[in-house]
Amino acid sequence: MKLKRTATLALAAALVSAPVLAVAGCAPDDTIVLRVYNWEEYMDEGGEDSYDGTEAAPSMTERFEAWYEETYDTPIRVEYTTYGTNEDMYNQLMLTNEGDYDLLCPSEYMIMKLAAEDRLVPYDDSFFDPTIEENYYIRNVSPFIQNIFEGNEIVRQNNDAGSTWADYAAGYMWGVTGFIYNAEAIDETQLAELGWNAMTADIYKNKVTTKDNVRDTYFVALAILYRDEIKALDRNAENFNEQLTAILNRTDEETIKKVEEILRQIDGNIYSYETDTGKNDMVLGNIWLNFAWSGDAVYAMDLAEEEDGISLNFFIPNECANLWFDGWVMPKGAQKQPAQAFVNFLSRPDNAVRNMYYIGYSSVISGDRADETYGSAVLDYVRECYEADPEETDDVILYDLSYFFGENTAFYAETEQALSRQLHAQYPTQEDMLHCAVMDYYGETANENINELWSRIKAESLDAWAIAVLCAAAVLIIAVPLAAKFGKHLEFRKKPKKGYRQVSQKSDEI
Amino acid sequence: MRLQFSRKMLGIPYAVFLLFFVIVPMLVILFYAFTDKELHFTFGNFIRFFSDPSKLSTIAYSLVIALITTVICLAIAYPVAYILARSNMKRKFVLLLLFVTPMWINFVLRVNAIRELLSWTGLLGEANYFNTIFGMVYDFLPFMILPIYTTLLKIDHSLYEASADLGAGWSKTFTRITLPLSLPGIMSGITMVFLPSMTNYVVSDMLGNSKVTIIGKFIYEYFGSNWHMGSMVALILLIVVFLTTWLTGGFREDETVRGANI
After folding, report:
1. In sequence order, what are the residues at sequence separation of 6 or more whose Cβ sits closer than 8 angstroms to the Cβ of residue A185?
2. Per-residue pLDDT tens over the stretch A351-384
3. Average per-residue pLDDT in chain A?
4. A12 inside 8 A of chain B by CB
5. Span A293-306, pLDDT tens digits
6. In which band, very low, low, confident or very high, does the pLDDT at A11 lie, cut at 50, 70 and 90?
7. Per DSSP, what are the bridge partners of residue A274?
């Protein structure tokens, strides 16, 4: 009841408010209003918890407003709203008019969906000109990320051949999926051997969790289903990652049918489907193994260390993992100039650091080392967090992140940090990245099928006879009061005993 | 012409509210439930719902969970309400307050607290259905106590005296006077516990580790991906709710003592 009310109310409110929003958008003076729609808690909001650490520290949007006015000599105001899931964002976009939002931050598959449905406008060519000082995005984005964005074509019906993600999206944060595990309870070699199969392994029964989210769990099921095929691939082959990505994007009927089997095994083996109780359950020791996005993993490890002195580790299965992004896109009707300026401002390395610090995920920004002011900010921040002095301790290794930050950027880090803790989660090694695959948008039909599959898995299952019995019971429950209700009007009620007079129910009205 | 003010005009704000926030949304749900993605009329969602055993099982489970919750709530609430209403304790409102105060504390906070408790006792993750029902009973108990308490309080004391005068014992007085006269309170208590416990998926998610699925969760998930199917499930739930309310006499007008108006 509660939910139904909220849902309908929200719907009605959205219907009513859509035109109002459009009107409210027109500011009386020449101040530009930039409407940014982002994930919850996904940008530096200033204050004591921010990187600058003072109560007066401005939020990222306030910083932008000041910077924009200074740079372009036009006042601007950011209207910042947030959403909880990609689907919420999509639904909201469908309910509002073109031009109600200037900038959105969906995940990769939602970017593909929006682009395929022709709802986005591309970035200007000038956005990619590295000679312009304010083009912080193109100057500072990691080549690793930009290669992926340029290497993935956008598929749609009226295909303007050759357009890639890079034309429509600018990266924001990225990461991989893996397991957080409790090193005291779990044998690491065993876990490494099992990989994603840990999700269905008897030894972890009731001690492992997955996300209450169909795409993540479907990925795990695919990894389990095609484990042998993936292992048989030649890792040194030029097109290894392409082959891997193809396998991990299978959505044909045959696959879905087999995946259902595996999802049932997972369903029987896990402790819970969770969206945010996993971290707490890890710390409490209720579970040993928690499917996690890397940014969440960093947060959970920090938390466990600070508050409970428990040490949690992060593990990326060797056979494959999911590489994900969130990126900035402009829906149709967006004000392109200020929107692109906003993306550029976020991509200035010092701001990238502020956001990384605040939200715990890894920015796509690596830094342009030719830029003396800001260029090394991100790498400096990472080193500040993780660098260890080899003269003080022997337990260090040279951690090489040149695939992300460019050449000559290796630094010494504590072995444990580098191999299984925060650093490993935040910036996996190049070797790890080789077997990370991007998961595409499934497409309309497959998406529907997979959602149905998910609802079947999550639903309660009863045998046919049990349904019959319950239906019979329900009919009975309905029939008995019905009979009582209408029985009154029939004549089979007992006549009053002799000597009594039946008093009318309404007699008290006299 | 002078604008005549009539008392009926006081109802206009509510009528407007009713129109925009009750009637229009209902129609929207009805519209979505019987259309497909291209907004063509279809019975497809209806057929899909009733031809899928997993959906029917979930409805059946929701009904059973709600039924058990209601029965337990009633079994706990009635004696408490009875004792409170009949006792001559000086400070009985303090006791009543103790039952009601949990309602003033944020719902999510309470569910989280129970989660911690269950985790501490080791039940969390071991007995998902039990935990779900436990949480629902805890959350909805005040909604059962209050209406029963108010109806019991309103029973004229002279009825008990008359009953005693005529030589009826406690049990006879209870079955002939107390119980029948408190029936409206019981009914509204049942409505107020039964209906939310079919849809309150926060409890089943948090305490049942999301491994217990009730019908409300379905609606939530469908509204992420397919509004048409989601509307159909919502509509079916609406019908179930309507039937339940009607059967428990929720629409009868001759009851002045219904406790639902707390």
Report:
1. A207, A285, A288
2. 999 999 998 899 999 988 888 888 889 999 999 9
3. 85
4. yes
5. 988 898 888 888 88
6. very low
7. A211
Kindly state the helix (H) or strand (E) to which residue B257 belongs, with its residue range: none
**Confidence check: pLDDT of B140 > 50:** yes
Beta bridge partner(s), residue A81? A37
Sheet strands (E) in chain B: none
Within an 8 Å CB–CB cutoff, is residue B88 touching chain A?
A: no
- Structural domains counted in chain A: 3
Does any domain span residue A205? yes
Q: Does the beta carbon of A478 lie under 8 angstroms from any beta carbon of chain B?
A: yes
A435-441 mean pLDDT: 91
Range of the domain at A195: 174-324+414-458
Asked if A15's CB is within 8 angstroms of B199's CB, the reply is: no
Do A288 and A200 share a domain, yes or no? yes
Asked, for residue A386, whether it belongs to a domain, the answer is no
Residue A505 CB neighbour total at 10 angstroms? 8
- Phi, psi (5° rounding) for residue A323? -100, 125
Q: Quick check: ipTM above 0.90?
A: no
For residue B17, which residues of chain A lie inside 8 Å, CB to CB? Answer: none
pLDDT tens digits for A480-500?
Answer: 766 666 655 554 445 555 555
Q: Are residues A103 and A41 in the same domain?
A: yes
| Token pair belonging to A444 | 């309309």
- Of A111-115, A477-481, B232-236, least confident by mean pLDDT is A477-481
Looking at the fold, whether A333 and A236 belong to one and the same domain comes out as no
pLDDT reported for residue A45: 92
Using a CB–CB cutoff of 8 Å, tell me whether B237 touches chain A. yes
| Token output for A407 | 């050449």
A249 and A265 share a domain? yes
Q: Which residues pair with A177 in a beta bridge?
A: A293
Say which CATH architecture domain B54-247 belongs to: Orthogonal Bundle (1.10)
Within a domain: A58: yes
Cα separation, B21 vs B26, whole angstroms: 8
Element (H, E) at A10: helix A2-24
Residues A341 and A299 in one domain: no
Residue with tokens 């099992």: A194
DSSP state of B262: -
Token pair 């500011």 in the structure block, residue? A27
| Residue B51: pLDDT band with limits 50, 70, 90 | confident
Kindly list the domain boundaries of chain B, sorted by start residue.
54-247
Given a cut of 80, whether residue B147 has pLDDT beyond it is: yes
Using alpha carbons, list the distances in angstroms from residue B141 to A424, B60, B69, B96, B146.
48, 23, 9, 12, 9
User: What angle, 0 to 180 degrees and rounded to 10, lies between the N-to-C axes of helices A214-225 and A444-458?
Assistant: 90
Q: Which residues of A100-136 are buried (b: 16+ CB within 10 A; e: fewer)?
A: bbbbbbbbbbbbbbbbbeebbbbbeeebeeeeeeebb
Which of B210, B230, B247 shows the shortest C-beta gap to A274?
Answer: B210
- Taking CA atoms, what residue in A is nearest to B62? A460
DSSP string for A281-316: HHHHTS-SEEEEEHHHHHHHHHHIIIII---EEEE-
pLDDT, residue A33, reads 95
CATH number at residue A351: 3.40.190.10
Share of chain A above pLDDT 70, in %: 86
A168 and A126 belong to one structural domain:
yes
The answer to whether residue A401 is domain-embedded is no
Tell me the pLDDT tens digit for each residue of A265-304. Answer: 999 999 999 988 888 888 888 899 999 998 889 888 888 8
Residue B195 is nearest to which of A1, A12, A458, comparing CB atoms? Answer: A1
Q: Are residues A254 and A292 in the same domain?
A: yes
Same domain? For A343 and A274 the reply is no
Q: Is A155 on the interface with B (CB under 8 A)?
A: no
Q: In this predicted model, what pLDDT tens digit does every residue of A202-256 receive, in sequence order?
A: 999 999 999 998 999 999 999 999 999 999 998 888 889 889 999 999 999 999 9
